[in-house]
Amino acid sequence: MSPSMLRQLWSVVETSQSQLLLNLDDNSLVQWLLKQLKTQRSLDHDEANAYTHYIHSKLPLIRDLAGSRTMLHL
């Protein structure tokens, strides 16, 4: 994945509501993030696949980040 693709994904993660990221099951979270990315720019098949695989590999980190943001707001 290109650096710009990585920045785009992590920007979406950081600006998304923590509770949403924590409450969706794995497949729903991947699909939701992919949908958010597609609203920012069109993705070809290879880019969508790259995002899907990368997001799946980073789900624990995404949930940890969302959880830590939730704890900061308590």
Give a description of the structure.
The N and C termini lie far apart (35 Å). The protein is an all-alpha fold and 74 residues long. 84% of the residues lie in helices and 0% in strands.
Quaternary structure type: single chain
Q: How much is the radius of gyration in Å?
A: 12 Å
Task: Please give the number of β-strands.
Answer: 0
Strand content: under 5%
- The percent of residues in helical segments reads over 70%
Shape: globular
List the helices and strands in order: HHHH
Structural class: mainly alpha
Ranges with pLDDT <50 over ≥5 residues? Answer: none
Task: Give the terminus-to-terminus CA distance.
Answer: 35 Å
Q: Biggest sheet, in brief?
A: none
Mean pLDDT across all residues, rounded?
94
Count of helix runs: 4
Task: Looking at this protein, list some descriptive labels.
single chain, 84% helix
Provide a compact summary of the structure.
By secondary structure, the protein is mainly α.
